[in-house]
Amino acid sequence: xxxxxxxxxxxxxxxxxxxxxxxxxxxxxxxxLLIPLNNCRQAEFFLPWKCEDERHVYEKCEYELVMEIxxxxxxxxEEEAKAKQNKLQGNIVPLxxxxxxx
Length: 102
Description:
Strand content: under 5%
Radius of gyration: 25 Å
Order of helices and strands: HHH
Oligomer: single chain
Shape: rod-shaped
Largest sheet: none
Helix content: 55-70%
């Protein structure tokens, strides 16, 4: 499944996500990493020093997604600022008017 505007693909299927009871807020391109992390957490009784490798991989994936979104938003803001600047430059009234004969 492709996600528009993202370089990462959805690896986990909808069925896997539903079966694993992944909350709606976590159903992103990193859900395939969250499923084994949650399984490990349940098996290890949520001890914080367990499942460190799975957690690190999942958090790295989430970080990369956030950075991708930040870069996309930065590009959008730059394009809007550029368009606004061009619009402002087009509305400037010259101090010396152009004459018909010039």
